[in-house]
Design a protein that fits this description.
With 425 residues, the protein is an alpha+beta fold. 32% of the residues lie in helices and 26% in strands. The radius of gyration is 20 Å and the shape is globular.
């Protein structure tokens, strides 16, 4: 079977790795791919945003499935184009992807569907946004409405910080078009969870929950990033909570999407906050999350390829068996480049030492020189995932493997899963 994976980050490497485990004879193509994916299949130098180039590649290669990793090609309508060509694609249409690409749309959808979420208002006017900030008081959340690589959310602890966030988005264009519209949202307290579900638009196959670590520094300090690590399973997300998420979040959301003529198929990601008053949705993503994917997939025993292909071909998941999970725990430690999450320095040479059993190094921001040297080529460079019987053992193994990888300016956290360990896991 021939499969095209679109994207070139750690998430795409993890997806490619899992699909090749599901089918050892898989003929894998990735565009643009990365040096890690190149060990699994063939990489074509076509950008994930080059919709014409990707469609031409898929048609020329007669691929039987396209798996779209990042949100940008979904926002550009890649799945719509592929469907027009009769090529099965796993991912939502451009209209359905707006559940991630417009936080305003997602918030209005949730409120209309009765999905639990924080109250928020949307603004394009600076003065009106600041007035709402003052009305809500600090702490308060200011979000860029569009996609901003996981960095367009400011949790402001003071009014001055919140007003500065409004200015950075609406005046200084810190996030470009993504910040041309902002949400001012009530602050929620609690722990965050990431829950993924494969869906045909009506039925869902939920996965185990993971917990991401957004801050650059240990103890969740410093600025937000795209994610510095993740772990699973999470003890505060037992099967009963996943079932509640299906009933209160996924199913009503999918129903609302069908009712407005935007059926959602693919992978729906719910970012949850477990607040003192109950579960609430922080945001939706229209694709696999990063780095949660790198933590979750090594624990998935059952096939991911099979339900993906069913959804891409327009088949129903009704009656499909639930995912099967490997016993134990998984911890992913992200290695970031010098300067991240600010201005990043690229080109530092990387040396990856022996990694040990049950440790996988997923490539994210890497490139290989003509002479074969591996170098940094992005903010988040590598994601080191370890599987062990417990979170503590998996973290120790992941952190040790991360420490044995060298490049100048390397940053990583050694405390991934710290909340879980505080709970005695």
């Amino acid at each position: 079977m021939k499969v095209l994976v679109v994207g070139g980050g750690g998430r795409e490497h993890a997806l490619a790795w899992k699909l090749c485990h599901d089918d050892p004879y898989l003929d894998l193509i990735a565009a643009p791919g990365n040096p890690g994916i190149a060990d699994l299949g063939r990489c074509e130098k076509i950008a994930a945003t080059d919709i014409d180039g990707l469609c031409a590649l898929a048609a020329r290669e007669e691929v039987e499935l396209v798996v779209v990793g990042p949100e940008a090609p979904l926002e550009l309508g890649l799945v719509d184009r592929l469907r027009e060509l009769g090529i099965p694609a796993f991912g939502p249409t451009k209209a359905a992807a707006e559940i991630e690409t417009s936080k305003r749309f997602a918030k209005e959808l949730m409120l209309s569907a009765g999905v639990p979420t924080a109250m928020a208002r949307t603004f394009t006017d600076v003065a009106a946004a600041k007035a709402e900030v003052r009305r809500l008081g600090a702490p308060v959340v200011v979000k860029a409405s569009g996609i901003a690589a996981g960095k367009g959310v400011i949790v402001a602890t003071t009014l001055d910080e919140a007003e500065a966030a409004v200015d950075s988005m609406l005046v200084d264009n810190a996030f470009g078009a993504a910040g041309a519209e902002v949400l001012v949202e009530e602050f929620m307290t609690g722990e965050e969870l990431s829950v993924f579900a494969v869906t045909d638009g009506t039925n869902v196959l939920p996965m185990i929950a993971a917990q991401d670590h957004k801050r650059i520094g240990e103890g969740d300090t410093g600025p937000n990033t795209g994610g510095m690590g993740a772990y699973c399973p999470v003890s505060i997300a037992p099967p009963a909570l996943i079932a509640e998420t299906v009933e209160r979040v996924f199913l009503p959301t999918l129903t609302a999407m069908r009712e407005i003529g935007r059926p959602f198929t693919g992978l729906l990601y719910a970012g949850l906050m477990l607040t003192p008053s109950g579960m609430k949705v922080v945001e939706f993503n229209c694709r696999f999350g990063d780095p949660e994917t790198e933590a979750i997939l090594p624990l998935l025993e059952s096939s991911l390829l099979e339900p993906m292909l069913a959804v891409a071909r327009g088949h129903s998941l009704a009656g499909h068996p639930p995912h099967r999970w490997r016993a134990g725990a998984s911890v992913t430690t992200v290695l970031a480049a010098h300067g991240y999450p600010g201005a990043v320095r690229n080109g530092d040479e990387i040396a990856i030492s022996a990694r040990g059993d049950d440790v996988v190094v997923f490539h994210a921001g890497t490139k290989r020189d003509a002479d074969g040297a591996l170098r940094t080529a992005g903010g988040r460079v590598l994601a080191v995932t370890a599987v062990a019987p417990t979170i503590a053992a998996a973290r120790e193994k992941s952190a040790a493997a991360a420490a044995n990888i060298t490049f100048e300016g390397k940053q990583f956290r050694r405390d991934i899963g710290w909340r879980e360990l505080e709970r005695g896991a």
